[in-house]
Specification:
The modification 4-aspartylphosphate is found at residue 673. Keywords: ATP-binding, Kinase, Membrane, Nucleotide-binding, Phosphoprotein, Transferase, Transmembrane, Transmembrane helix, Two-component regulatory system. Residues 376-602 form the Histidine kinase domain. It catalyses: ATP + protein L-histidine = ADP + protein N-phospho-L-histidine. With 743 residues, this protein is of the alpha/beta class. The protein folds into 5 domains: 10-233, Rhopdopsin 7-helix transmembrane proteins; 240-343, Beta-Lactamase (2-Layer Sandwich); 358-427; 435-599, 2-Layer Sandwich (Heat Shock Protein 90), CATH 3.30.565; 614-739, Response regulator (Rossmann fold, 3-Layer(aba) Sandwich), CATH 3.40.50.2300. It is 52% helix and 17% strand. It has 23 helices and 19 strands. The strands form 5 sheets. The protein has a 5-stranded antiparallel β-sheet. Strands 9-11-12-14-13 form a 5-stranded mixed β-sheet, covered by helices on one side. It has a 5-stranded parallel β-sheet with strand order 16-15-17-18-19, with helices on both faces. The longest helix has 54 residues, at 345-398. The radius of gyration is 48 Å and the shape is rod-shaped. It starts with 9 loop residues before the first helix and ends with a helix.
Length: 743
């Protein structure tokens, strides 16, 4: 029961309770209208704790010893516990600190303490004590502390110091909020010390803690309403920036005071209320230093800082880049920084890919230009070499086996053939050489090379280099030119051996591999089965600058006087490109490794057959019309035809060939050059002749292939094509096949 007359000093406590209840009501209304504004809920909880505490003190003033007074004392301790919990909740919410663990762990602990308070006498005893305050007509009676009472007081004191530490440690936070909050905490703690001394017998008018409660609740309410006003005033800015893809961030007094959703997404957290060091906590140390320096420079007079690119993700320092562009502004009548954050990760990645693509296109154009130059020179050289290679065959057929002239003539022919091989390399680089692809096994090509004179010569010049072959026993087949595959192997092995200065080794390895995803650096390669040819050495490696140019025609680092024209790796590159394959090159100080991918074919290789003797390739006087715009080529071809038993005729152009057909009718076969200038080319000539003689047979002669005219001529009905310069056995075999009966 409460006494009949109210103690005068208790009027202050009742007034505090009423004011606190009004504050609770206001904040409850605001929270109901804006449920997302959680700060208002925590501040309302602090006001509610002040209401409970002041009301408890009022009842203790006016109630005699008994259940009501004891209940008021229990409520007083409960209010203190509520206040501690709401202190931390308010601070966590204001500073955007994740307080889930605190609320879960300490919430359970506080419920346990409340249970001890209300169901036992360990915290609050069943006995009462009297406090004799100045001016009181009767003693102030309250429940005495139990055995754990001092521990509860110590816990409350330490918890208050913890809240103070949180506020003090928040660097750069709004100073007026911090000063007001800390002052309220200090006053509340001083009032608590005063009341503790009063409980120990110090003369005083009455307890003051409830007034500290009220003042502190008022300060928290002011902070909450100020933040609500700030957020409300920012709504117009937030509406503009909410759907922007760039992040907008306003920094004032070293703290973030405004952000949009895109900014939160870029930073990975909310930045509002935090200093720069905290909301950029994911940035690398170097990036954070750059950001600080940049923001400092922006605030300088007439600053015109260029945007900076920084990494905001420590775990991926080369990928997640953010561009920050900042300017000094006036925000709410005070200086501030407006920073625009833009995610540059995809853009930088695309720029890098574009640069790589442009670099590849530039290299391809350069190689194409060099290839065209090489191809043009090679085509002219082929015509010049035809006499050197073809006439010796005619001369040797006229000379007796014992003639002393046979050896120099053979030497001349072999020299011509070596020159033809160089020209062939030039044409391969030009990606226009006439090649016939057959089904082959790379293991067989390696075996042929390892038994060749070129390999023996290589071993003789490099006795300190050991060459090892590790060949897959069940290697799949590919479809390619045997000559080119042999040259690829020869060039890679010879380059590897020449790169080794002292003792070393070269490893040749073959394997089958299934590619189910794009290869590194080659996204356009198709998934499928590949034969892998690997040539690795343990030499000094290739420099990074040279590695970018090794496939360029005529690029070589070999010492003057040693072998090498700079066409070897260019030839390798072009062969792989024509195959639709891929080259992977890795090199360091421990050696270089070339890994070549050849698409697999499931066709079987043809059985090896011995060459047909020349006397079995003779014809029976069939009429053959040779069409070529170069006189020497016509003469050589006609002489070879005569030696093979055919009756040759010659035409110097496509138009002349048409006139001959119209005048004499068809011939048994055409030997038709594809490139003739001026006038119509070989394809157009053959097309017009076919219109006159539908069944006209033809053999295409060219130094080029993979051109549309050659493909069209073959589709039109041409039996074969031959590569210049023409050798008598190759011509005889082609004629034999052309005149062979069907089936």
């Amino acid at each position: 029961m409460v006494t009949g007359s109210i103690v005068l000093q208790s009027a202050g406590s009742l007034s505090v309770a009423v004011l606190a209840l009004v504050m609770v009501t206001l904040q409850a209304i605001l929270l109901l209208r804006t449920p997302h504004f959680k700060l208002c809920g925590w501040s309302g909880g602090i006001s509610f704790a002040a209401f409970l505490y002041a009301l408890s003190v009022f009842f203790e003033y006016n109630a005699p010893p008994g259940p009501v007074n004891r209940a008021a004392g229990l409520m007083e301790f409960t209010a203190i516990l509520f206040l501690i919990h709401f202190f931390y909740g308010f601070s966590f919410s204001l500073f955007n600190i994740d307080g889930k663990r605190y609320h879960l762990g300490l919430g359970i602990f506080h419920l346990f303490i409340i249970t001890l308070i209300w169901f036992g006498d360990r915290v609050v005893a069943d006995r009462f004590v009297s406090r004799h305050f100045i001016g009181l007509s009767q003693p102030f009676i309250e429940p005495d502390l139990g055995p754990l009472g001092p521990v509860f007081v110590l816990y409350g004191t330490l918890s208050s110091l913890g809240v103070i530490w949180i506020w003090v440690s928040r660097k750069g936070f709004r100073r007026h909020y911090k000063i007001a909050f800390l002052c309220g905490m200090v006053v509340w703690i001083l009032f608590g010390v005063h009341d503790g001394l009063a409980a120990m017998g110090m003369p005083t008018w009455h307890y003051l803690t409830e007034y500290g409660f009220l003042g502190f609740a008022a300060i928290v309410l002011w902070i909450a309403f100020s933040r609500f006003y700030e957020i409300a005033s920012e709504d117009k800015y937030r509406t503009i920036t909410e759907y922007a893809t760039d992040g907008f961030l306003v920094i004032q007094d070293g703290n973030a005071v405004f952000e949009n959703p895109a900014c939160r997404e870029l930073l990975g957290r909310s930045a509002t209320g935090l200093p720069v060091e905290e909301f950029f906590d994911r940035a690398t140390e170097k990036s954070l230093a750059t950001i600080r320096k940049y923001f400092h420079s922006v605030m300088q007079p007439e600053a015109r800082g260029e945007p900076i690119r920084v990494n905001l993700e420590k775990t991926a320092p080369t990928e997640n880049l953010t561009e920050i562009s900042a300017n000094a502004i006036c925000y709410k009548n005070r200086p501030a920084i407006l920073a625009v954050l833009r995610d540059m990760t995809q853009r930088v990645r695309k720029e890098r890919m574009l640069a790589e693509s442009q670099g590849k296109i530039a290299r391809l154009r350069k190689m194409e230009a060099l290839g065209l130059l090489a191809g043009g020179v090679a085509h002219d050289l082929n015509n010049v070499l035809s006499g050197i290679v073809s006439y010796p065959d005619l001369l040797l057929m006229k000379l007796p086996p014992s003639s002393d002239l046979r050896k120099p003539i053979l030497t001349m022919q072999e020299s011509g053939k070596r020159a033809v091989a160089i020209v062939s390399d030039l044409l391969t680089v030009a990606r226009g050489v006439a090649v016939e692809r057959t089904v082959l096994n790379i293991n067989r090509s390696i075996d042929v090379y390892l038994k060749s004179a070129e390999y023996e010569k290589l071993c003789l010049h490099h006795p300190h280099v050991k060459i090892n072959a590790h060949l897959h026993r069940h290697l799949l087949n590919i479809q390619a030119s045997p000559t080119h595959i042999t040259k690829v192997i020869m060039n890679l092995v010879s380059n590897a051996a020449e790169a080794i200065m002292g003792n070393g080794s070269v490893d040749i390895t073959t394997a089958n591999r299934y590619v189910d995803r794009p290869l590194k650096g080659r996204n356009d390669i198709r998934a499928g089965e590949y034969v892998i040819l690997t040539v690795a050495d343990d030499g000094p490696g290739i420099g990074a600058d040279d590695l970018e140019r090794i496939f360029e025609p005529f690029f070589t680092k070999k010492v003057m006087g040693r072998s090498g024209t700079g066409l070897g790796l260019a030839l390798v590159w072009n062969v792989i490109q024509d195959q639709g394959g891929h080259i992977d090159v890795t090199s360091d100080s421990h050696g270089t490794r070339f890994e070549l991918y050849f698409p697999v074919t499931r066709k079987r290789t043809a059985s090896d057959t011995p060459p047909t003797p020349l006397d079995l390739l003779h014809g029976h006087g069939e009429r053959v019309l040779v069409v070529d715009d170069i006189n020497s080529q016509r003469e050589i071809t006609c002489r070879l035809l005569e030696e093979l038993g055919y009756t040759p005729q010659a035409a110097s152009s496509g138009e002349a060939a048409l006139d001959y057909i119209r005048t004499h009718g068809g011939v048994d076969l055409l030997v038709l050059d594809m490139i003739m200038d001026p006038g119509i080319d070989g394809y157009e000539t053959y097309k017009r002749i076919k219109a006159i003689v539908p069944g006209q047979k033809a053999i295409i002669v060219s130094g080029y292939a993979e051109t549309e005219p050659v493909k069209k001529a073959i589709q039109l009905g041409a039996q074969r094509y031959l590569r210049k310069p023409i050798l008598i056995d190759a011509l005889g075999q082609a004629l034999k096949e052309a005149f062979a009966p069907p089936g």
